[in-house]
Amino acid sequence: MSPAEPLVAALPRDALWFPRFGAPPPAAGAGTVLICFPYAGGTASVYRDWRERLGAEVMGLQLPGRGLRMREEPYTSAGPLVADVADELVRRGLTGDYAFFGHSMGALLAYETGCALRERGEPGPRHLFVSGSRAPHLYGDRTEHLLPDAGLHRFAAGIGALGDGDRAPVNDAYLARRLPVLRADLRVCNDYRWRPRRPLDCPMTAFSASDDPVAGAAEVEAWRAYTTSSFLRHHVPGDHFFLTAGGPSRERLLRELRGELARLPRAAARTTTDGAATPPSEQKEPSWTY
C-alpha cells in the first residue's frame, strides 16, 4: 500500500480502523464486542446505529480507500488485509471477548481473520455471524473486477449496490467515485483461494436472502462445515443488501443478532498446565477437506 496522505496520517490510528460515530471506545470488561466487517465497496457507517440497536458494544471496521481513509490505497489481496486487521485487533486488545459479523466480502474477511488470530495463538471469536456470502471454498470463480467501468457500473446496479446504509438509487456520479474501491474489493474476493484448515470452534449463524444473486441459499448453507460448534441459518426476504437501512429484513437481522449476543456466556480464560492461555481452537483437531 502507498503511504497515507498527511491529512489521514494525522488522524488517531484508532479512528482510522474503527470510527467511533460519537460513541466512546468499549471499556475493559464491558462484555462481548461485536466487530463488523464491511461488504465490497462498503464503509463502517452501515453499522453506525448498531450499538444502540443491539444494546452491545459494536465496532465497525473502516478499510482504506473510503471515509476518512479515502486518500489511502485500498487493498487488492486478502492476505495483507487480513494480517493488518489481525494486527490492529491484537494491538487494541480486542481479542479477549469478541464476536465477528461480516456481510458478503466482510464474511470472508471475518472468517480469515478468525483463522489468522488462531494461528497467532489468540483466542477465537465467541460467535461468527456471516451474511450474504458464499462459503470460502466457493470463492474465486468470478471476474467482475476486470470489467470496464461501464460494465462494473451495470454489475453494481444489477445486484442492488447501495451507499453507506442508504436505500436511495445509485447515481452515476456516486458510483464513479466508488468504482475504484469496489473494483479493489472485488479483486480481493475474486483472487481469493481458500486453503484447507480445520474449522473454527465457535457457534456460527448465517443469513441468506431470498433474492440474492450473489450468494444463494445452498452457497450460504455451505458455511456449516466451517465450524465444529452449532450452526444456524436464517433465510430472509430481500436482495443482496437486505441489511441496509430500509432493507426488508434489517429488523429481523438485528433482532437475531441481539438475541444471540445476549445468550453468550461470559468469556472464561482457558489455561494449560503451565498457566499459559490456550485458545479454544487448539482443543479440537478434526480432519476436514474439500
Automatic annotation (TrEMBL):
GO terms for biological process: lipid biosynthetic process. Residues 264-278 have a biased composition (Low complexity). Residues 264-290 are annotated as: Disordered. It comes from Streptomyces telluris. InterPro entries: AB_hydrolase_fold (IPR029058), TEII (IPR012223), Thioesterase (IPR001031). It comes from the Bacteria. Belongs to the thioesterase family. PANTHER family: S-ACYL FATTY ACID SYNTHASE THIOESTERASE, MEDIUM CHAIN, THIOESTERASE. Residues 34-257 form the Thioesterase domain. This is Thioesterase domain-containing protein.
